Amino acid sequence: MRILITNDDGINAPGLQVLTEIAHEIAGPQGEVWTVAPAFEQSGVGHCISYTHPMMIARLDQRRYAAEGSPADCVLAGIYDVLQGGRPDLVLSGVNRGNNSAENVLYSGTIGGAMEAALQGLPAIALSQFMGPETQDLDDPFEAARQHGAAIVRDLLERAHWDGGTDYRLFYNVNFPPVAAARVKGRKVAAQGYRKDTFFGVEPHHAPNGRKFLWIKGGPQHMPSLPGTDAAVNLDGYISITPMRADLTAHDALADLEARLT
Q1: Which residue of 39, 145, 196, 252 has the lowest C-beta tally within 10 Å?
Q2: What angle do CA 70, 72, 78 make, to 5 degrees?
Q3: Tens digits of residue pLDDT in 27-61
Q4: 96 is in an annotated binding site
């Protein structure tokens, strides 16, 4: 199996090393793991692509590249430049430092990498490690992802539906709970949730020269979403698995809107 991996935390992020281990376990001794990851952190870029300017790409080692672009850029670079059109069998994105549950999905570069792979017609899985008070005390805060990641990926490959024939094909979003690996209760298929009163905002600061700068500030991450949705099951100690598509149509509103406008 040939696997392409990327992330949004950057080429030197510890979570990417965890993903490399997972990918090698899945690919097997005769398989290939190719890394194309951002040269610098790209958290929060979503599905951004560098459409208006070029990006530099550098070979760091055998099958390991850094690109000055977003995770979606890295997937494109991997498919069309690094692999010279020799398409991978699977694209893995992560392991993100922090959760990509609930509203974080919309901002996540980790999700953006998996989404671009799906748009390219490839099987793709995004993986993220929810962080919290318990993970702060661990020698390895990625312990849950490291110990459970390969089994989740293997089960998805062998048992999940991949619907390669649809226009917006499925990809999967996996979040590991903020607990030690031994305290993971299991896995649950969960819809994307919504954390009420958890919004991004800005925090102003003034530089020594008097100029004003704004830092983007996130909301509290340990607010549960509705029962049974991703953030809620993560906070209850479960790995969440969420099937996703790039189609943003509000299908539930189509018939009502048509009736109102005709």
Answers
A1: 252
A2: 100
A3: 999 999 999 999 999 999 999 999 999 999 999 99
A4: yes
Distance CA(227)–CA(31), nearest Å, equals: 40
Task: Confirm whether residue 89 is marked as ligand binding.
Answer: no
- Residues of the chain scoring pLDDT < 70: none
CA distance 66 to 18: 17
Is 175 assigned a ligand-binding role in the annotation?
A: no
* List of domains in the chain: 2-194+225-248 (3.40.1210.10)
Using CA atoms, how far apart are residues 170 and 152, in angstroms rounded to an integer?
Answer: 16
Check the annotation: does 163 bind a ligand. no
Q: Mind giving me the DSSP string for 133-154? A: HHHHTSS-TTHHHHHHHHHHHH
Q: Which among 142, 126, 163 is positioned nearest to 47, based on CA atoms?
A: 126
